[in-house]
Amino acid sequence: xxxxxxxxxxxxxxxxxxxxxxxxxxxxxxxxxxxxxxxxxxxxxxxxxxxxxxxxxxxxxxxxxxxxxxxxxxxxxxxxxxxxxxxxxxxxxxxxxxxxxxxxxx
Length: 106
Description:
The chain is mostly helical. The chain is 47% helix and 0% strand. It has helices at 28-46, 54-69, 86-100.
């Protein structure tokens, strides 16, 4: 497999990238069915299509909102009460320094 084109100093040439091909294209059968699926989803969400379980209607509403506005960020608590090994502490300090810049820890 050939890598991206580079100049004599090893720099990427204009128009070339190290990035991969990206997300695969959606199949045609999926694209053609998406508008009908959206119509059905909206019908369920708005009550135009009756459902036996209100949880289904709620899920349809959540799906529509997530697709239109994006999913809300989720907070993650990564605090720990266990002891951290010296090697892990060094890695965490290194990662923190790279993320925020050097600090004077004395």
